[in-house]
Design brief:
The protein is mainly α and 208 residues long. The protein has one domain. Helices cover 55% and strands 10% of the residues. The protein is built from ten helices and four strands, in the order H-H-E-E-H-H-H-H-E-H-H-E-H-H. The strands form two sheets. A two-stranded antiparallel ribbon has the order 1-2. It has a two-stranded parallel ribbon with strand order 3-4. Helix 3 packs across helix 4 and helix 8 crosses helix 9. The chain is globular, with a radius of gyration of 17 Å. 33% of the residues are buried.
């Protein structure tokens, strides 16, 4: 069995185990989201996968309804800060994030539904960040030296977790993040994947 088949088996086994192990969360979190900020429960957004193919990523909603429109159409200052921060805003400074959403993000619980993206084969348990098409377009324009990294990143599936998420450097700039993702895409192996998986729980707890 080659690496690609081994990785797919690992993805299916780990994702299935986690879906079953966290069954109470699939019941509790939707209830808490509705009580905290109403519907919808899930957030779906287009991301770029292997070969540049777009797919919908799934997350528990951690922002107010209409957060995307608020950022891109109604709040120019917030959008400026978002792009200045390499397409990220610290949770404590982001007015779009709900009270419950801050907790879900701190514990990475909001990303649990991505396990179903893994089951469908759109994502892997371990891989590069699932970037937005517009994000890659603007970032590579801003940082032309990263084009070679992005080209390499898109040769494999994005992951629920990955090298930079478990490095203890979650706030690193796009240039370094892209290089780390590209390095993983060039040197991944089953042993590397297992090491990253083992480091992920500690990385999740450290965010809290």
């Amino acid at each position: 069995m080659n690496y690609e088949h081994q990785k797919r088996v690992l993805d299916l086994v780990v994702a299935t185990i986690l879906i079953i192990a966290f069954l109470p969360f699939w019941i509790l979190i939707p209830i808490l989201i509705v009580l905290d900020s109403g519907l919808p429960i899930m957030f779906r957004h287009k991301r770029i996968g292997k070969g540049g193919q777009e797919f919908y990523i799934n997350k528990f909603r951690s922002m107010i309804p209409g957060a995307h429109e608020l950022l891109h159409k109604k709040n120019k200052q917030l959008l400026k800060e978002f792009k200045k921060g390499d397409w990220k805003i610290a949770a404590k400074d982001d007015p779009r994030i709900t009270r419950l959403g801050r907790l879900l993000r701190a514990l990475t619980i909001d990303e649990f539904p991505q396990l179903f993206n893994v089951i469908r084969g759109e994502m892997s348990m371990i891989g590069p960040r699932a970037y937005m098409k517009s994000e890659l377009k603007e970032q590579t324009k801003k940082h032309p030296e990263t084009k070679k990294y992005v080209k390499k990143i898109l040769t494999i599936k994005p992951g629920v977790t990955g090298p930079w998420q478990t490095s203890g450097r979650n706030e690193i700039p796009f240039t370094q993040r892209a290089k780390m993702d590209a390095d993983y895409a060039s040197n991944h192996s089953l042993l590397v994947d297992i090491k990253i998986l083992c480091k992920t729980p500690k990385a999740m707890i450290s965010k809290w």
